[in-house]
Every structure is written in structure tokens, then in C-alpha cells.
Amino acid sequence: MVWVVSVQPLKPHLVMFWMLDFVVFKKLKSTWIKFGCWGASSGIGTETARVLALRGAHVLMAVRNVESGKKVKENMIKEIPNAKIDVMELDLSCMSSVRKFASDYNSLALPLNILINNAGVFPYSFILSNDNIELQFATNHLGHYLLTNLLLDNMKKTARDSQKEGRIVNVSSIGYIAAYPEGICFDKINDRTSYVNYRAYGQSKLANILHANELTRRFKEEGVQITANSLHPGVITTNILRHLGLVGGIFNWLSNYVNKSIPQGASTTCYVALHPQVKGVSGEFFADSNIAKTSEVAKDADLAKKLWDFSFKATMSNPTSLSS
Ligand SMILES: NC(=O)c1ccc[n+]([C@@H]2O[C@H](COP(=O)([O-])OP(=O)(O)OC[C@H]3O[C@@H](n4cnc5c(N)ncnc54)[C@H](OP(=O)(O)O)[C@@H]3O)[C@@H](O)[C@H]2O)c1
């Protein structure tokens, strides 16, 4: 059973636009159309998009590989003939791609209510992105941070014009507890020698939580009608372990028997993004469609502010280079 079955029908004021990692609802002329986009041909994001399309969402898929995105779109339309789905290119690990995507989207002058930051990678080895940033931090956090910032004016305007709450949902992980002991190693993001893959993953997932918390603080300060929450989807067999080789294969095989299914994994995202019970709730961490406890480091407001300032500098057009 999936939580989303209890979600209220989408209201016409909701503008949804779902990217590889997020969902938005948008209005076109006088007709409310729901959009979503995502970047994968599998995983939690695809299932989230499917559920949203089933609920009448117009889904815009932001994908690294447009061809595979189009195949997902075709399959979805076979199942849901009335589904409205589009595909756009986005590489979250590349800040110029994020800027181009946001610019293209904003130039459409379409509203945006719900943003789901879902994309994630968990590579085995230390990898630098094209921008020379450790890949997990770049993809899992910085790309989402920049994308959110570049779409915020749109979301604020939409919330004002529609008088309806906007929602930002960061798909984090309970793996955040495995972050380095310092939480975020600001001076060692690019330090290959101290890199431990699961700790770097935990760091990036901790950043997802801190990002949502700092957004919440800022929205409250500004009096903006947008919420920001983070969540753990559960442990689910997806492609996320594809780079872990045999270990990932064995884990995935075992996990088929004990873990959540992909629809169950997408349920908390759908709940936090859509459910009326979550109205006005912000700065919380969810698991199993409920508010869950986090560690002290995940609640650290000073750390969240420091991460915001660090991320701002790292994603500027001429970023301060990260130490290596
Ligand atoms: N599965 C779990 O047990 C689990 C547990 C806790 C948290 N999570 C979180 O859940 C989220 C979804 O993961 P998943 O399990 O569904 O894994 P997945 O099947 O590997 O999906 C990850 C998605 O992120 C996309 N992506 C990766 N790098 C990207 C980039 N540079 N630009 C754009 N899109 C990119 C992938 O696109 P491609 O198809 O192009 O690779 C894919 O759509 C992640 O944030 C993950 O950390 C998962």
C-alpha cells in the first residue's frame, strides 16, 4: 500500500513541474496543467513521476540522457494515455547545465509550486565533476542548491499569485549519519586522500537536510509561503548502487527480499510533496510518511548557514576554487 493513494486530488491552483529531481505544477493559459520531469529510467524519481502523472500532473522530465528520458515518457504514456509529459536536459553535476536549464525554464514564464530534489549518485571512487568538485557533493547537493536558488523567484511569485503554499522536497537519506565526524568538511571537499565513499555520500545527504532547514529559516524570515523539508525514502533496490560492483550487486540481491519496493520508496516523497497534512510543515525530516528524529548535527542552524554561504560561493559564475 502506498501513501499517495490517500493524497487529495490535485487542486487547480497547484502547478507541478517534476524534474529529474523535482516536481512542480504549472499553469498554462487558463488551464491548469501539471508538469514533472526526471532524469532516470528507473528509481524512486521515476515512480514519483508516474504517481504524479496518474494524479493528472503534467510531468516535465529533466534528464541527463534525453533519449532514455523519452523512452520513459513513451512507457508512461502507454500506461497513462492522458499523461502530459515533457523532457528537458539537465546535468546536476555541471553548474553551467543547471544555469541553462533554469534559464530555459524561467524564460517560459510558467509558474512553479513544487520542487522535488531527488537525484543522487553514490560512486565507489573519488571522482571530480567537470567543474572540479567532488562528484557526490556536486551532484547531490550543489546542483540542487543552485537549481533551487535559480527557481526561487519563480516559486515565490507563484506562491504569491496563487496564494497557495509552494513546497520544496529534498530527497536525503538516513545515510546522512555516516557523514564525516565534522559533518561537512568544508576544507576537504576535494581531498582525495581523506575520501571515503560512504562518508562523502553521508556528507552530501546531510547537506540536503541542512539545505532544507536553511531554506525554511529564510522563508520564515521573508514571510514567504513556501515550505522546505527533507526525507529518507527507505532502503530500496534501485540503480544507486550500480557503481559499487559486486558489493552493490550482492546488496541489491539481498535487499530485494528485505527492503522497500520502489513504489513504497516513492511514497514519502509523494506524501511530503502533496498531502494536505503537511501544509505549513517546514524544516522537518520525514521517513515512512512521518516526521522523524534527526541527529544534533542535522539540526545545527549555524552549520546550515555556513553550508549555504559556502555553496553560494562554490556555485557562483566564477566560483572560488575548492581546496584539494
Ligand atoms: N535507493 C535507496 O535505498 C535510497 C536510500 C536513501 C536515499 N536514496 C536517495 O534517493 C534518491 C533517488 O535515488 P534512487 O535510489 O532512485 O537511485 P537511482 O535509480 O540511481 O536514481 C538516481 C537519479 O538521479 C539521476 N542523476 C544522477 N546524477 C545526475 C546528474 N548529474 N544530473 C541529473 N540527474 C542525475 C539519475 O539519472 P540517470 O538515470 O541519468 O543516472 C537518476 O534519475 C537519491 O537522492 C538517493 O540518494 C535512495
TrEMBL record:
Pfam families found in the cross-reference section: adh_short
Name of this chain's protein: Short-chain dehydrogenase TIC 32, chloroplastic
Organism: Penstemon davidsonii
Transmembrane portions of the chain: none
InterPro entries tied to this protein: NAD(P)-bd_dom_sf, SDR_fam, TIC32
Gene3D superfamilies to which the protein is assigned, alphabetical: NAD(P)-binding Rossmann-like Domain
